[in-house]
Specification:
This protein is an alpha/beta fold. Helices cover 28% and strands 19% of the residues.
Length: 275
């Protein structure tokens, strides 16, 4: 027998996962060269110095600082240390990496530098419409959460387009990514889909080369990250009720952030249900 439960959480009981509740909120910018900033000048064959590679990270830091939100960018990488005014230069941007490369290291990254929120933009180097690498990343983040007893919110970005090339593969990748994220949200994952592809408003003038944004493009990316980050997020909606049944018996979950409802269908175990 299957039973359908609907939980309504009162506004006064909302557990909002916001920056304002924590003294310092740890953010991990995670991705490839679009996160690290590996763009090259048209007349140069070598990358720009590491010290001036800031990507969207500097602009996002300034926005958070202006909003008086205390954050700590975390990660094993350092880039942008010569930028003025200074910003927190730690990140996990890895030029040339695919989603599969990130998936093989994300557990290690989080263990070394725990984060409250991850800004994930990865897949450009995959050159494929498959999101299996993203699935592996999210699976290992879930494993880290279970092992550490912590929650990590992941903002998953639809990857930006490329200039002078067909974006059919990127279109398909982003469509598959959207389906994946929506499916995992319904299963209780703490994810937010960020439409960096269309929502950031990048145009040809916002690119330094066919792949990497220039200063104006990165500022647009930072603005979308910022606007998403400051929205209240309800952690409680992404946790299974503990007093009903074990999660192994739950067959489907639908999380609706707008109505603050969690709906799930569960199979009644032999031992029954305890309320």
């Amino acid at each position: 027998m299957n039973i359908k439960f609907i939980y309504t959480l009162l506004m006064g009981l909302f557990l909002f996962h916001t920056f304002l509740q924590a003294e310092i909120h740890r953010i991990m910018p995670l991705g490839d060269s679009i996160t690290y900033d590996d763009l090259r000048s048209d007349y140069e064959s070598t990358p720009r110095p590491t010290g001036i590679r800031k990507a969207y990270r500097a602009d996002l830091w300034y926005m958070l600082e202006e909003a008086k939100i205390s954050v700590d960018f975390v990660g094993s990488q350092v880039a942008g240390q010569d930028i003025v005014p200074p910003f927190d230069v730690n990140n996990e941007g890895h030029p040339g990496w695919t989603s599969y490369d990130i998936s093989s290291r994300v557990y290690q990254f989080l263990s070394a530098n725990p984060a409250d929120t991850i800004l994930l933009h990865i897949g450009t180097n995959d050159r494929s419409s498959s999101v299996d690498g993203i699935t592996a990343i999210l699976d290992d983040i879930d494993r880290y959460e279970r092992d550490s007893g912590t929650h990590v919110r992941v903002l998953v970005a639809m990857i930006i387009g490329r200039l002078s090339v067909s974006n059919v593969v990127i279109d398909n990748f982003n469509a598959n990514l959207t389906h994946l994220v929506q499916q995992r949200i319904q299963q209780g994952d703490m994810l937010t889909l960020v439409d960096m592809y269309q929502g950031a408003g990048l145009i040809s003038d916002d690119y330094a080369d066919i792949t990497h944004p220039n200063a104006s493009g990165y500022q647009k990316m930072a603005t979308l990250w910022f606007n998403t980050l400051i929205q209240p997020y309800n952690v409680a909606l992404h946790s299974y009720p503990q007093s009903i049944v074990s999660s192994e018996y739950i067959q489907s979950v639908v999380v609706d952030e707008n109505t603050k409802l969690v709906t799930f269908v569960t199979k009644v175990p032999d031992y029954g249900i305890t309320f």
